[in-house]
Each structure stands twice: as C-alpha cells, then as structure tokens.
C-alpha cells in the first residue's frame, strides 16, 4: 500500500519542523484531504530515514498549528473543514485550478504565513487595548506602530527614522498618495521605459504626463534622462533602483550619484520604490540616503509577509510630512489600525525572520531551476528576485507565446503592461517564479515554457 511521503528538501530547520511544515503545505495544496489519516509514525520514519521520535515531534508540531488531530488508538488525521461562516462568504473556489499562474509577482507560498496571521488575530483578541483598533488615530499612523515598523526595517538593512514615516495601505497606495499630493494634473513624471504597471496606473489616475527613459542592465541611462531634463524637466522621477520590474535591472552606483545630481539641478522629486524585496547585500545605496531632502521611499509588507495585509510605509522629507499626511487624511483619514496591529505583531515574532530567511533561500533555489531549464535564453533577473525577464528568440512574438502557454495551462505576462507612453513593447515575457505553489510546479511550468519556445513561430499571411 502506497503511503504519503513528504519531500523535506524545500523546508529548512530541524527535521521534525520540516515534517510539520510539509504537512501544512500538503493540506493547502489539496494533497492531504480533510479526514485523511496520516501514515503510521514508524512507517513514515522508515520512508524518510529518520527516527520515530522525529516523526512524533513533527505530528505534534502539526497538531499545535491546528492542521491535524490525534486520536488515541486510531492515529493522526487531517482536521475536517470547519462549517462555512459569514467570514467565508467572499471566498469562492477557483475555477482555474489547472492553470499555473506565473503572471503575478507574489512571494512563495508557505504555511508559516497563515500560521503567523492566525497567531496575530488570536493575540489581538486577547489584548486589553483592543478598543484602540476601532478608534480614530493620527493620519500618519500611531507612533508605536511607526516605531515598530522602523525597527523592523532596520533589521532588513533599511535605516529609517519613525518620525519620517507615514503608514500606508501598501506600496501602491504610497505611490498614488505621492503623485496625487505633490504633482498637479499635466505635470511630467519620468520613469524607466519599462516599469511597474501600478505606477503607470497611478500616474494616469492623477492625470500626469509620463515619459519613459531608456535603460539597460545598469538601470536608467543618465544621458537620456539629462536630454529629457534639458527639453522639459520632470517634476518627479520614479525608479525601482535595486530591481526593475519587470526586467530585474539594477541601477549602478555611478548612475545613482548622477541621478541625484540631475534631480538637484532640475529640482525634481525622486520616488524610490523598494517593494520588490532583495537581501541587503544585493541592494545598492538607497536614494533616500544620497538625497534625503528630495527622496520619497515606498516599502510594503506585500513581498515579505503577505500582500493581503495592505500595509506599507512611505518615507518622506520632513518638509513634506504634513502635506502628505493631509493628502492621506483626505483619501481615507487613516490606515485601519486593525491591519497595522496584525503586521506589527507579525514582524515582532521570530517566525517573521524565519519566513524571510526561508523565502530568500527558496527564491535562490527557484532561480537555479530557471537556469537549469532555460539556460539557452537571455534572462534578466536578480539572484534572490521573484521575477525573470525572458527575451524571446529572433522572430518570436510575445503575444503569440502567451496564448500558446495559456492553452498549455501556464500564464505569464508579455511586455505591454510595463510600457510607458509610446514605448514599443519588446518581444519578451515576465515569469513570476515566486507565484508557483512549489518547486515541482515551477519546474513543470518552466518545461512547458521551454517546449513552447522551441516551437516555430506561426506563419504571418499578408494580403
């Protein structure tokens, strides 16, 4: 009789904890169904080559997380699904379960995300100060929250003062807040010619003009930016200096210095987007350190903890604090304290650091899979980045490839959503490797991409 045997390679830490995490992951993926009995401890120990005590501890850890329940004399079983409540009404089963969606830039799934969120909710329900979560607070966010977030950012290698922060509803909100508050309709915003679609959308909502600046593997070309400044200086320059989205290009140190000099010469604001997280050793000198008087910096918990939290921070020069706080107050009065509490509790727990360490290693391993499968193609990415930019072979068309992939059950993005203004779309695709459920699923999708790339382009008939 075949028994369920987990793969522990994707989980770090002690073996018993890896067993527990693999159980949680298998339940989330539907590999273990509600009510299903786990393998007898001795049989699983033999299959994994570990001691019975290790499996016993692993099962106990899984039970502690609420994933399984032990019945004396019967074994350990996956917990049955709880009856649906009013809180479940918004959640509908997905109808595209057969599609591997690599079109969204998401952090790799891990049971610790749900575990940490659940622990935060439980802690909040038992807190004597729960009443503050339904009260009005300062638009910038509670001082204690800002201090907690600043301390966490310092642990991530970002030295920011709590007094220069505003709490936002995620990175997208931070970008929109800056553009709608500091710029007037019709003013010019410069970005890389290919950039984050959310920034393009925010600029359109604010009725701004946009210009795309040429860039290469070293980031935005300063000669092109200077030529634009000579013609019409942009009121604001938006950059993702450590990891361009979608291409992964990193702005060199020399160009960071040149960018700051140009911004000062032409009196342009700098909006630095650091939401696409990279470890500190892979990041360059922050623009907010090089030009603190004119740089606004956006960060979010989305790519580190969970996107659904919608909690971020906006670092701003002191002279803009009140202006931006007034803009935030006009938009939503404040960020809901309930969600900020959840984020602040989460980042204070050891599991937050463990999750980020795992994610960093996991993305590096996934990037290695990309190298193994797609080494024959031109790839743009960061070592621990969650995205890969694949330039198509001569004669191939990105839209056609995306359609082929969709038919084969894999979804990726072409270049169109990232193009600024009249920038022509290059024949390339963005692959979000973090979005895959696990390495096996990613490998499956990469092989489909490789097979589709090997097919000849469809013939074009003209009349």
Could you give a short description of this structure?
The protein is an alpha/beta fold and 463 residues long. Helices cover 40% and strands 14% of the residues. Helix 9 (253-265) links the parallel strand 9 and strand 10 (269-273).
Q: β content, as a range?
A: 5-15%
Which runs of at least 5 residues are low in confidence (pLDDT < 50)? none
Walk across the major sheet and give the strand order.
4-12-11-10-9-5-6
Count of domains: 3
How would you describe this structure to a colleague?
The chain has a seven-stranded mixed beta sheet, sandwiched between helices. Strands 13-14-17-16 form a four-stranded antiparallel beta sheet, with helices on one face. The longest helix has 25 residues, at 350-374. With 463 residues, the chain is of the alpha/beta class. The chain contains 15 helices and 17 strands. 40% of the residues lie in helices and 14% in strands. The termini are far apart. It is globular and about 80 Å long.
